[in-house]
Amino acid sequence: MVVGESDVRLEKPRGCAVFESEWSRVKRLTGSDDARADEGVAWVQELYDGLEVPPLASYGLTSDDLPTLIEKASVGGSMRGNPVELTREKMEGILTRAL
User: CA-to-CA distance for 64 and 58, rounded, in angstroms?
Assistant: First the structure.
């Protein structure tokens, strides 16, 4: 599993409006008004598995590359819109599982 429930801390969103928007998306994806975080994670994992996304290692990346990837992701603008703050440790865990 690339992204696990422990990577998602929905109880600590950055902004309530953003959180509600993202939570509505999880509900739509799972088809359940009572959707839980683990169901959203399972939906993403099923999509990931179905797409047969190759591991990062197939592109030549190794664990030695992770600090650089994490640094670039941390300063990039794409992280600003994320309703869940990803620490460097969480990013390292996600990327390690994606290798």
Answer: 15
Q: Does the CA dihedral 32-33-38-42 come out positive or negative? A: positive
Distance CA 38, CA 54 (A): 23
pTM, two decimal places? 0.64
Ordered by start, the domain boundaries in the chain are 13-53, 54-99
Residue 29's pLDDT is: 74
Asked whether 10 and 19 are in contact (CB, 8 A), the reply is yes
Please say if the pLDDT value at position 94 is more than 60. yes
Tokens, residue 8: 């998602």
The answer to whether 94 and 7 are in contact (CB under 8 A) is yes
